[in-house]
């Protein structure tokens, strides 16, 4: 059974001085070397490198995941479908369902398991297209995906999924606007739409269901729809996160 829930936060004017931005995440050492070779493919780091429970080093980016394997000392990047592996012959690209001959048998499924990022960049781009199609229908200029704002939206989608809540404010009371400031996003006006789905075959189907429900809203209970069609917004950040048990969280942050 498909299930959709949506929340909207209407636009607010931010008159307070913006708080200092948090230290930006960055690629370092082996991950920096990999990023320099792959360029835009690796996206922008969403967090600094850290160690997983098994000793592997991980770093989530806007397009996938960097990983250094403790077991065999190689570095790789994956976008969830394809992987770039720094092995004995330099950096080589392959599908996640493929393996190079030099990869050990006991590591056949390692990258697939480690690197299946829960973020869906394709679904996020589909959501952007839906938003802009609706804006065009009503003569409203399109919004552009902003990298920093996308990181903020993805972080909140992931936080809701991992901690099993659905709200604009975190359990600690951090609002969307607090999270934007912490993420280094400047704004005068901003808004957030949230969506949730379960029982969908794909993330894009869930996003489509949320978007259609938002656009079907009627006044005075049409905050989502107003946010989507607000011409003062020029930028958007969209994060789509799917949990292991199939819950899909959708966060869409708008700024001027």
Secondary structure layout:
Blueprint: E1 3-13, H1 29-38, E2 50-51, E3 57-60, E4 65-68, E5 75-78, E6 82-87, E7 90-95, H2 110-115, H3 121-137, E8 144-145, H4 147-163, H5 176-182, E9 189-198, H6 203-215, H7 223-228, E10 235-242, E11 248-255
Parallel strand pairs: 8-10
Antiparallel strand pairs: 1-9, 2-3, 3-4, 4-5, 5-6, 6-7, 9-11, 10-11
Structure description:
- The two termini are 37 Å apart.
- A six-stranded antiparallel β-sheet has the order 2-3-4-5-6-7. Strands 1-9-11-10-8 form a five-stranded mixed β-sheet.
- The longest helix is centred in the middle third of the chain and has 17 residues, at 121-137.
- The chain is an alpha+beta fold and 256 residues long.
- Helix 3 packs parallel to helix 6.
- The protein has helices at residues 29-38, 110-115, 121-137, 147-163, 176-182, 203-215, 223-228, and strands spanning 3-13, 50-51, 57-60, 65-68, 75-78, 82-87, 90-95, 144-145, 189-198, 235-242, 248-255.
- It has seven helices and eleven strands.
- A hairpin with a 4-residue loop joins strand 3 (57-60) and strand 4.
């Amino acid at each position: 059974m498909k299930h959709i829930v949506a929340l909207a936060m209407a636009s607010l004017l931010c008159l307070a001085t913006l708080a200092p931005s948090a230290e930006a995440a960055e690629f370092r050492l082996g991950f920096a070397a990999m990023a320099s070779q792959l360029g835009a493919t690796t996206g922008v780091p969403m967090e600094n490198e850290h160690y997983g429970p098994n000793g592997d080093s991980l770093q989530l980016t806007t397009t996938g995941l960097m990983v250094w394997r403790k077991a065999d000392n190689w570095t790789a990047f994956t976008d969830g479908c394809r992987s770039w592996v720094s092995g004995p012959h330099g950096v080589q690209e392959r599908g996640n369902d493929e393996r190079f001959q030099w990869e050990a048998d006991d590591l056949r499924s390692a990258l697939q398991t480690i690197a299946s990022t829960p973020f869906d960049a394709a679904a996020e781009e589909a959501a952007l297209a839906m938003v802009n199609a609706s804006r065009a229908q009503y003569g409203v200029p399109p919004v552009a995906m902003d990298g920093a704002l996308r990181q903020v939206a993805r972080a909140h989608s992931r936080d809701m999924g991992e901690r099993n809540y659905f709200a604009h404010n975190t359990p600690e009371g951090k609002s969307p606007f607090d999270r934007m400031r912490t993420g280094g996003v400047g704004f005068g006006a901003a808004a957030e739409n949230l969506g949730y789905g379960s029982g969908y075959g794909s993330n894009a189907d869930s996003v489509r269901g949320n978007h259609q429900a938002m656009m079907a809203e009627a006044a005075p209970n049409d905050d989502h729809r107003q946010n989507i069609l607000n011409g003062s917004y020029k930028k958007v950040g969209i994060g789509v996160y799917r949990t292991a048990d199939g819950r899909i969280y959708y966060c869409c942050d708008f700024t001027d």
